Structure to design on (1046 residues):
């Protein structure tokens, strides 16, 4: 044991010496301390508001807490219930996956089309940019209620289509088990895609014109231009939004809760709805915390994928 | 900057853009059509709304607006919402901007760990930590206090703001900063005098996104502000929509009034917003 | 460049604002009166809430020397209350959406026992016994009931007269009539749960009580009978048959999506014929029928049909009032509650604000100005409740998790995913769990 000790000592003395030297030059402060000083204020706020309370929620997931009063420790029983007893958990999780699939494709495709269609035009570009972004500023409560009226099978758009003689439109999209989830996703997306478009557009306008000129000289058509110049040009923002979309897909709540509360017959139930129902309606705050933790677990998986890609040298 | 001076080629160019305008018009109908319906509904009376929920009102009723204004106590709630938005945006831009600067430009030791933490923090379901947070806030005397809610909003909005600002700052070339450092500027001066001005479009976007998030937030506002004089616009909008009956003409009018201020702010900053986005890119 | 300066200015202003509104704590000026706070939710929205404040809160503050009540309308009242109580705070006067919620609060020690006040102010005599009984936990009174509700069958009288239809009394008559109405191309029931998903439970409760009878429901609630009893099964099957026939709003998808306003409009205009709903619907009916709704139609009501035609009123409590364990001035709070639940104030609230009265004895004269049909319902309901001929609404008498199950899972039965029997088996096992945990609200003896 003696030898390694001495070695360690000599190393640490050396390090100390280095540190002192760099301190003298101010490098230690500038390289190690100062960056953290810039981060500290917002980090402290975030830890106080989010991390601390979330950790105590982690404890509650191991209890039978009703949401008020005392909590009894019951070990992993809540997680056993999730895995073995709760059939609605599985269907809610599958709905989250469907939601994820819908949001990774439709809004991103729409925003890419919208942005690349606006990008080359001069006249009216400002107007379109503004107009297509406007739905994003509306609160979810208003959007949800607005679309509920619009989708009314008798008096809304569907009713109008029926009157025009279009077959198969005489249905309430939000009232059918097979259409309800895509319909809510459609409404959420109505409000969401304009925001994505503005972000993509900003990315596209950072792409140098020369690259397009070069592609054109190479005889690239519009699609090839889009594929080989536009997409790589906006890759940072694109990848970032894909990541955030994936995360948000596991947390989605507002629109589903306001429009159907998970119904009919559980067809639009997602994990966050289960958390809310258990915590605020059924007095099962401990169990709700456990479900909430599993949501964080899935999000963690997505983040891990992101980190692996980063490690492999993706600039994201 | 190069400008197209040849009118002839400009004309041909516009012609080839016709498909673009067709697609955009369809998008426009999709985005704006429902909003027109909302506006129409705010000008109908209840009976007409029941019979004609989509079309242009046959007779215009303005009554809904003053009624919604009074009943919703909009004069107080608008001020409250404005304070929440201003406080949160200011703090998020300043503190989040500092953090983003540190991550993008100062090679923050443990920066990846911090990013990971922020990602995790932004992914926790809010219902999970609502009750413990309330307990803590009560002990600090921050319940029923706009400042207390602003702190929560800062924390909740910080991760996205930091990510967005960082991704803008990463694109900036180091030459400018290095030049400033050589001239003897401190890091704080580099941040405020060089990096903030250069990443201004990012700040505007983040400011806009956070304003919207705060203006439209509902759950936290109801739980943490229980005093009527502290209600926000959304909370009072919710007062219209009750369990059993909904006066849709009134809620439409309230909705239009709620959208109006944020829309106006967006319109005011629109030009700078777009310019910032188009000129902000300084590819190295 | 200018824009940057402008934003700097804005940030500075906002910072100044932040400092100004910082954690100032409670800046309460010296008050002579004892302060009592209360949060409440109003089914009449903000307008209804202002009416309540004018008619009951302001009048109390004027006449009281020592107490001042501050009532706040809470949009999301129950979530806010729950969270606040868990954090050791909350208003002095705690309102909940029903006895099973108050029960949960009392059990976890968040409420103050009210027995002394009940004796002091004579609440035991003033309130209808079965209703007051619902606030008792472990032999102590913790909450007092407000808003006695019942459900009846409303129908478009004008439409019925045109077609020569008779208002049904038995369930068989109801089924036969619904078939006839459906054949005439009219929607039998203007029902929808789009804006209030627990609407489902109204019908489950009605059919359990009215097909199997309240006596059986009482036995099941007190554990003498299983929920899987054949008569309960047929009740659920009958309800499911009606749903699958498309009698509720013309189909399940319509039932899940039609807006409440539309259901009332269609009933009033004769596109639909009937509606089983609570007493809270009366103000809406009057909005959509007659001059105000732009038609010449009239509505009327009968008790919800039962198996043998005897009238049954399923009773429910829409709101409860209690006092926070941490209240600073419990005596002052009790003084206000006593005022608020006096027959005079309840009558004023009913007539002026459309509030459903509490289960206190109100002189019929005091209700003058109330819609006569509404007054009839109240009278009939009171009679039934005194005679013991009442049934049980799910949100008042079932424990919370069972209650959620009742309105959540019934949709799976209607969708054909599970059978009526499986549904009731699930209810039974959940109910057993809650009984074991002691979460059952007190069921008054019949």
């Amino acid at each position: 044991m003696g030898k390694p000790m001495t070695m360690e000592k000599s190393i640490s003395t050396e390090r100390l010496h280095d540190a002192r030297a760099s301190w003298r030059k101010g490098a230690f402060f500038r390289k190690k301390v100062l960056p953290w000083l810039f981060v500290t204020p917002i980090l402290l706020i975030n830890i106080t508001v989010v991390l601390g309370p979330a950790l105590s929620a982690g404890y509650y997931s191991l209890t039978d807490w009703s949401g008020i009063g005392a909590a009894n420790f019951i070990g992993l029983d809540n997680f056993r219930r999730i895995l073995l007893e709760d059939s609605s958990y599985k269907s809610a999780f599958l709905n989250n996956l469907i939601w994820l699939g819908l949001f990774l494709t439709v809004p991103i495709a729409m925003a890419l089309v919208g942005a690349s269609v606006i990008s080359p035009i001069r006249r009216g570009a400002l107007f379109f940019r503004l107009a297509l972004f406007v739905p994003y500023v509306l609160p979810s409560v208003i959007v949800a209620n607005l679309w509920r009226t619009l989708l009314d099978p008798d008096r809304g758009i569907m009713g109008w289509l029926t009157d025009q003689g279009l077959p198969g439109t005489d249905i309430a999209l939000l009232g059918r088990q097979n259409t309800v989830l895509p319909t809510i996703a459609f409404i959420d997306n109505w409000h969401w895609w304009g925001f994505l478009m503005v972000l993509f557009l900003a990315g596209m306008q950072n792409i140098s014109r020369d690259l397009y000129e070069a592609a054109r000289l190479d005889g690239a058509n519009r699609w090839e231009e889009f594929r080989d110049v536009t997409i790589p040009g906006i890759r940072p923002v694109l990848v970032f939004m894909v990541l955030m979309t994936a995360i948000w897909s596991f947390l989605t709540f507002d629109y589903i809760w306001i429009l159907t509360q998970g119904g009919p017959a559980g067809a639009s139930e997602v994990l966050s709805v289960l958390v809310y129902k258990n915590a605020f309606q059924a007095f099962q705050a401990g169990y709700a915390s456990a479900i909430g933790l599993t949501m964080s677990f899935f999000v963690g998986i997505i983040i891990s994928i992101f980190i692996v890609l980063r490690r492999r040298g993706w600039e994201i | 900057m190069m400008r197209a001076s040849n009118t002839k080629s400009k004309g041909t160019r516009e012609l080839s853009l016709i498909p673009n305008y067709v697609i955009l018009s369809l998008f426009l109908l999709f985005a704006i059509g429902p909003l027109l319906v909302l506006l129409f509904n705010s000008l109908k009376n209840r009976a007409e709304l029941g019979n004609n929920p989509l079309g242009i009102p046959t007779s215009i009723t303005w009554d809904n607006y003053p009624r919604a204004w009074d009943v919703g106590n909009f004069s107080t709630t608008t001020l409250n919402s404005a304070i929440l938005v201003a406080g949160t945006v200011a703090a998020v831009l300043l503190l989040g901007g500092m953090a983003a600067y540190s991550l993008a430009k100062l090679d923050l030791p443990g920066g990846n760990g911090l990013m990971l933490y922020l990602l995790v923090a932004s992914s926790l379901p809010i219902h999970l930590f609502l009750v413990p947070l309330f307990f803590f806030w009560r002990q600090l005397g921050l319940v029923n206090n706009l400042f207390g809610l602003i702190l929560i909003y800062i924390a909740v909005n910080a991760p996205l703001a930091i990510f967005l600002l960082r991704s803008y700052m990463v694109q900036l070339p180091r030459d400018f900063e290095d030049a400033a450092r050589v001239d003897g500027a401190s890091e704080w001066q580099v941040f405020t005098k060089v990096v903030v001005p250069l990443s201004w479009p990012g700040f505007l976007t983040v400011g806009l996104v956070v304003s919207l998030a705060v203006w439209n937030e509902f759950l936290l506002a109801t739980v943490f502000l229980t005093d009527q004089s502290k209600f926000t616009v959304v909370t009072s909008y919710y007062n219209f929509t009750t369990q059993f009956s909904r006066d849709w003409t009134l809620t439409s009018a309230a909705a239009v009034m709620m959208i109006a201020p944020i829309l106006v702010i967006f319109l005011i900053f629109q030009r700078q917003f777009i310019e910032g986005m188009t000129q902000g890119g300084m590819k190295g | 460049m200018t824009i940057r300066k402008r934003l700097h200015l804005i940030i500075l202003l906002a910072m100044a604002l932040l400092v100004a509104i910082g954690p100032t704590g409670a800046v309460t000026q010296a008050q002579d009166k004892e302060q009592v706070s209360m949060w409440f939710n109003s089914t009449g929205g903000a307008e209804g809430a202002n009416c309540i404040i004018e008619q009951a809160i302001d009048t109390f503050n004027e006449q009281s020397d020592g107490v001042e009540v501050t009532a706040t309308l809470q949009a999301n009242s129950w979530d806010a209350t729950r969270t606040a109580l868990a954090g050791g705070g909350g208003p002095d006067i705690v309102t909940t959406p029903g006895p099973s919620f108050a029960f949960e609060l009392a059990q976890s020690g968040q409420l103050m026992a009210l027995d002394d006040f009940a004796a002091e102010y004579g609440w035991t005599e003033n309130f209808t016994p079965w209703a007051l009984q619902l606030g008792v936990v472990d032999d102590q009174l913790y909450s007092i009931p407000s808003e006695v509700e019942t459900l009846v069958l409303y129908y478009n009288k004008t439409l019925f007269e045109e077609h020569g239809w008779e208002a049904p009394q038995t369930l068989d008559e109801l089924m036969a009539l619904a078939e006839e109405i459906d054949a005439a191309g009219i929607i039998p029931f203007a029902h929808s749960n789009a804006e209030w998903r627990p609407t489902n439970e109204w019908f489950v409760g009605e059919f359990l009580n009215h097909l199997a009878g309240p006596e059986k429901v009482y036995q099941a609630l007190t554990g003498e009978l299983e929920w899987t009893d054949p008569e309960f099964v047929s009740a659920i099957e009958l309800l499911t048959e009606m749903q699958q026939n498309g009698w509720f709003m013309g189909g399940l998808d319509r039932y899940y999506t039609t807006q409440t306003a539309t259901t009332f409009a269609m009933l009033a205009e004769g596109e639909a014929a009937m509606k089983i709903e609570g007493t809270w619907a009366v103000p809406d009916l009057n909005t959509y029928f007659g001059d105000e709704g732009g038609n010449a139609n009239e509505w009327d009501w009968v008790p919800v049909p039962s198996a043998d035609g005897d009238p049954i009123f399923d009773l429910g409590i829409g709101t409860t009032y209690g006092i926070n364990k941490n209240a600073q001035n419990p005596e002052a709070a009790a003084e206000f509650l006593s005022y608020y639940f006096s027959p005079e104030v309840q009558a004023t609230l009913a007539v002026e604000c459309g509030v459903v009265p509490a289960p206190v004895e109100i002189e019929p004269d005091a209700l003058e100005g109330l819609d006569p049909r509404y007054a009839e319902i109240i009278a009939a309901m009171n009679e039934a409740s005194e005679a013991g001929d009442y049934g049980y609404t799910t949100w008042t008498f079932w424990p919370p998790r069972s209650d959620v199950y009742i309105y959540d899972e019934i949709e799976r039965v209607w969708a054909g995913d599970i059978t009526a029997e499986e549904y009731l088996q699930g209810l039974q096992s959940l109910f057993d769990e809650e009984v074991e945990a002691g979460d059952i609200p007190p069921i008054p003896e019949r």
